[in-house]
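Please go through this chain and its backbone structure tokens and walk me through the local backbone shapes. Keep your notes short.
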Amino acid sequence: MRKKIAPAIKAKAALEALKGELTIAEIAAKFQVHPNMVTGWKRELLNNAAGIFDHAKERRAAAEVQEKIDNLHKSIGEITMENDWLKKKLGLLK
């Protein structure tokens, strides 16, 4: 049966491997995993590190879009209220 390892532990092991303060074997013993796993996590971290910052840009862009949508909804509400008021005033003049 395979042991499931939490992503946080994988990240910690990969970061320690990147630091180079301990050997891969020492890191593997510390986290009770095979040294090949630590090497794979290190490689994966190096290959995918840029993706962390791409997602931050996407979240910022999504927040900006949502803010624009909210402003448009607010404007629609104001225009609707003004339109209703004008219809009411026009009805009084007839």
Residues 55 and 71 are 24 Å apart (CA to CA).
